[in-house]
Amino acid sequence: MTQNILTPSALLGLPPYPANAYAPLADRFKALLKTKNDVVFVQAEAIVALEASAASLGRQGMVALNIVTSPYGKYYGEWLRRAGAEVHDLLADEGRPIRISAVIEVMAGLPQLDLVAVVHAETSTGILNPLEAIASEVHKRKALLVVDAVASMGGHELDVDALEIDLCVIGPQKALGGPAGLSIASVSQRSWAAMVHVDKPSPSTLNLLDLKTGWLDKGRGAVPGMPSAQEFWAAEAALQRIEQEGLAAVIKRHRLAANATRSGLEALGVNVWVKNEGKASTLASTFQLPTNVDAQAIIDNATAHGAVVLPAHGSPGARLLRIDHTGARANFAPALANVVGVGIALQSLGIDVKIGAAAEAFSRAFAAG
Amino acid sequence: MTQNILTPSALLGLPPYPANAYAPLADRFKALLKTKNDVVFVQAEAIVALEASAASLGRQGMVALNIVTSPYGKYYGEWLRRAGAEVHDLLADEGRPIRISAVIEVMAGLPQLDLVAVVHAETSTGILNPLEAIASEVHKRKALLVVDAVASMGGHELDVDALEIDLCVIGPQKALGGPAGLSIASVSQRSWAAMVHVDKPSPSTLNLLDLKTGWLDKGRGAVPGMPSAQEFWAAEAALQRIEQEGLAAVIKRHRLAANATRSGLEALGVNVWVKNEGKASTLASTFQLPTNVDAQAIIDNATAHGAVVLPAHGSPGARLLRIDHTGARANFAPALANVVGVGIALQSLGIDVKIGAAAEAFSRAFAAG
Amino acid sequence: MTQNILTPSALLGLPPYPANAYAPLADRFKALLKTKNDVVFVQAEAIVALEASAASLGRQGMVALNIVTSPYGKYYGEWLRRAGAEVHDLLADEGRPIRISAVIEVMAGLPQLDLVAVVHAETSTGILNPLEAIASEVHKRKALLVVDAVASMGGHELDVDALEIDLCVIGPQKALGGPAGLSIASVSQRSWAAMVHVDKPSPSTLNLLDLKTGWLDKGRGAVPGMPSAQEFWAAEAALQRIEQEGLAAVIKRHRLAANATRSGLEALGVNVWVKNEGKASTLASTFQLPTNVDAQAIIDNATAHGAVVLPAHGSPGARLLRIDHTGARANFAPALANVVGVGIALQSLGIDVKIGAAAEAFSRAFAAG
Amino acid sequence: MTQNILTPSALLGLPPYPANAYAPLADRFKALLKTKNDVVFVQAEAIVALEASAASLGRQGMVALNIVTSPYGKYYGEWLRRAGAEVHDLLADEGRPIRISAVIEVMAGLPQLDLVAVVHAETSTGILNPLEAIASEVHKRKALLVVDAVASMGGHELDVDALEIDLCVIGPQKALGGPAGLSIASVSQRSWAAMVHVDKPSPSTLNLLDLKTGWLDKGRGAVPGMPSAQEFWAAEAALQRIEQEGLAAVIKRHRLAANATRSGLEALGVNVWVKNEGKASTLASTFQLPTNVDAQAIIDNATAHGAVVLPAHGSPGARLLRIDHTGARANFAPALANVVGVGIALQSLGIDVKIGAAAEAFSRAFAAG
Questions:
Q1: Nearest chain B Cα distance for residue A205, angstroms
Q2: What are residue A148's DSSP bridge partners?
Q3: Beta bridge partners of D187
Q4: CA torsion A19→A23→A28→A34, rounded to 10°?
Q5: Residue C303: helix, strand or coil by DSSP?
């Protein structure tokens, strides 16, 4: 019987990631992030690195402004609060980027301001926050700037040093097409200095300082603990691929897919949620479900036609669906299938949409480059 | 330096394919082919198995009818001739399936007939030959029936025993989505008996009988020579995937992609070469280039939009381009990108084609199932 | 130039782990652990699951006994303390298993006892703690029993339900030969009940209850957050391999490698640290460095001869080196190379050791089964 | 149920090997072979390339000397004969290298001599033929020199241009650790010229000239036919690894493993078949079975202890067993397990062998470098 002959799995039997490979790997992420700050690895998905950044930076006596454009943003404020900080949450309109005027206004009302946290782009709603303008305001107040760039890295320009970002978290799993069980944080000297209040006799997943004392200060050899060969080799392979394509080309490919998708959706006849390129993420596009339409039926039918469509968490009232054009999906064939697949799904429920016009608009936008 | 840290390759370090796995693997191919005949492995691409079948079956005094619907068909006649046979080539109209009436007519003119060779489907021109009718005629004459089913396996129904095919060659690399360096032949007892004239003191790649004496007659353990672990493990993985999906579903998926592609191309406004489903291969579709259009420019532009388009060898006069919807490409997203990508390419050269109508027709055909 | 042609990496482009695969995967880990308790996944290395268990179970008013046989054990006490518990650390003799008499004695001095934490086996020193006897004492006091079985799973018998373990953490990366970025915890109903004091409006990596509310209570579909396809597919592949070999055979293979290693080391003439099979881990063996010998020179030379030798953290005074015979290394060739490689390394520094006698003793022990 | 969730196979879904990658790949093999001759790929195991070389070079009126040191050597003479040549087989003593004096003597008796064929090293018996001396004699006669270097490539120095080898066949599957379904031939201009007599209107697997007209003369783009992505990507990965290690280091590693193995076997007390380093292959070692010993019992028992031991085809009278230390097995741990595993197997049948002495001698030889 053949059932006990197993095809050998390429995922097992990997050699350990070499001790002398971690530092060069970190340096390649520094280059992607355009930073001279330290870069450290957190061996878990990016939300762990984010929680750790809040737990490590937050302290009694700190006043923080937390810009909230999705549920994850709410968590960040909560994590800072647990660490003892006084946190002011600033909520954007549902499913919309924060307005810079709102940021300026709330900052003006805070005599003390030690830290500002913001998400660069949100895949859940497909929005892009005005990071440059926010950074400029934050620096006027000399507060620490913490940026969640997990969903924007590879899809948007990001220059950590030009924006003087003190702590920036990314992951290889979105536009970079890499694994999800590893995250990367760039940490400025100001950030490290802000963490020294932490009094921890034993290590903790949530203490970023452990990575400084356990890895950076020891010369960046093997990372402490038990590294996952799968994650590090996959991250290296993803980096190699990105470097070969070129980060600028990766970003352009995402922008192209995003523009073609939104052009296609508009021609299809659905209500695109974020139309302005400057306010929209390149990794996902969202549109509003027509009333009285079953979201799950749309998702199932579109999926059967090669689309990747998901409920857009973060703005339930707006009834948004989210279309994924990230990583390998930021290419002609999958992005076109997204738009046409959604069209077929809507038609199958009796909604009058224009698949032909959508395909033409998509093609025109894509061919325009 | 990181340049000397190599990502470990999953393609190296495979364990040898186990000696006791070859027989079950062969039996699974028997099931796909619906045959009780012997099934043997030829460790090379399918053209080697085909040449070997001609070299092994051909002999002085044999009269053969060779049905030619592509350049490969011409080779088969030549291989039989080299082996000593008297070969009558029957050529179809350029780029078209053979007409059964032509087969009947030429057979009527041959008082002796020992072997008939035919290709089931041709990817180069996208045609399907009337195998069932041919088989019926061949059996009336009690001749050996040799079928090249490399391009039809997985895309069309094929029942080796119902059609009493004496020698059938397939490969895992097309609709089955497997490797190209291994081919599979089913061989009837009549075929083995016809080969015994071969007098070979040493083994030869072109002598199928070596596989009988060296493998079948020894109990089907390890195949003789040095098996490629890459090919056998990949073939097993491909089989596993096909069995999980179900051969009928695989065939249906190819038929759906083919129908949608041809509907899309017609709506686009190009001249589809083989329209009739019963005469068309499900693995590839062909269309005629408009006059004065540069084929390579079309190919390059369509490729940039996710299409897989190739020159259709086999009918240069007809100026055909071939669209590939085989294996993983027999799915909504890649097949749609084929059609729309070709549309964009034609438009870019000033040809007036209807991308929107094509996308609509494609979607309708696909959704119709 | 070929340098810009990249071999495609098998570690990228994996399909997402299917939503309906998590529950069966968890059930297979339940079977390995011999438990009917809930099993949950923590997407990080096992130390994160351990810290989370302490953070989730620990509380004000809790009295805990923490059995310390390595630095990791110390951390556990600290994590419980941070969560508010009163923790009594019970330290074993350096590099030795805890004595059950010491456990009984210290328990007798604690009028209140809510939780006992212990590591089953320690790879750092190669010891095995008397888990069965400890469990028996703990149950007399109706305290919660928390077991770190990361290093014993697959190397020693472990029956979670027979031992009534309330919270047991394992990882696939040791004897199971799987990935390190995923850990698995079995959690009893008593443990879940003990966690409800945790008041957390937002999720936290360190709150195991999130896995109950976010995954178990929702029917065990896709795990919350962004699962790593690399980790889950690798864990599944490792499980498949373990199930095919049989857990009992895996354990036996580790025991055989351990016995042969220790027999070989004794015949070599070095001081084996833990000789008694009942007190020794099967995953690693430790021996004392002769005085005046440079540990790193031994490690480097032995490594060059195929051995895997590491400093044995956890008992610096004893100057131990640790030999790894875990997972794929729990086989004849790598385990023999360990012993002979260490012999060559010692000889190269002028230490008189008996390589021939070691190879003979190793072989005899291995052949004895 | 989990049985219908398949771990994705890294062996499927590979991108086609890029058309512009074949030429650089060939050039890297040229560098390994130290030749400026053309290098072509035969998409099948090396025996096919060998048969093709005989079928392509052989012709009526040719006089060939075929040096036979294994069954494969006999086949080569037969293939030349089929092609029409007059072939003189020169057989070495059973299981021994050819003596150069025998070559000189037989050549002296041949007034016409057009081609000499020889195998560089034989894994079946572990011997190395005196290639340099043979080449020198062949060149005096201006005959074509054909060398089967499949088993010597990577294990022995080989300089195709210094030795003026006209046709040299290698495969990546032995010392290079690559796939077995691809072979590589270097072909001199004299060889191409010698092939033009072949009159072939259609292609044949056995006609190397097809590779000249179909690939070399067309600018070395995509190879003709249907290339196996598995084989070419695996060959590239193997080359990359070899180049990183350095061919000289690879050869040294094989020599070290061979010397240590033979030292170990002698100390074990068995009769090593080829003792002289200059006459022995570095890829395999052979020893004579003691009388009245069951070869299969030895093989089974040694295999259970990590050895790779096989019957040595080619000299049945000598009752040889062959020990494999090729590729990844040319390292300390597997080579030591070979020797000790054989020792355990012999002991288990009551043969008095010295495992300890063998391990010591092996270690000494290995450490000596």
A1: 28
A2: A119, A169
A3: D38, D167
A4: 160
A5: helix
